[in-house]
């Protein structure tokens, strides 16, 4: 298990980048639940974000790639619009306890 951050450091409706053993990841908290993905867009295989910790669209209801605008469901990582529609972000297992958020993969 790898510790990612304290629970307060990933607020509702926000996203945050992490790096574990050289692998770029990001988390999103939605309706209280943390969703964790590898930071790699299935379109070109590059990181989704330009700005640090910025992985969501303006309404914070979808994950959005900053390069060509692909949008993904927060809960599943499925791409629903954009050049990689029908493909998926790579989901990673995480868990949250009284200490904070952990990568469990
Ligand atoms: S690299 Fe993400 S949409 Fe093209």
TrEMBL record:
**What is the originating organism of this protein?**
Pseudomonas soli
Q: Which UniProt keywords apply?
A: 2Fe-2S, Iron, Iron-sulfur, Metal-binding
Which intervals hold domain Rieske?
Answer: 2-103
Keyword check for Oxidoreductase, yes or no.
no
- What protein name is recorded for this chain? MFS transporter
UniProt-recorded Gene Ontology molecular function terms: 2 iron, 2 sulfur cluster binding; metal ion binding
Q: Which InterPro entries match?
A: Rieske_2Fe-2S (IPR017941), Rieske_2Fe-2S_sf (IPR036922)
Q: Which domain of life is it from?
A: Bacteria
State the Pfam families in the record: Rieske (PF00355)
In its keyword annotation, does this UniProt entry include Plastid?
A: no
Gene3D superfamilies reported in the protein's UniProt record: Rieske [2Fe-2S] iron-sulphur domain
Identify the PROSITE patterns for this entry: RIESKE
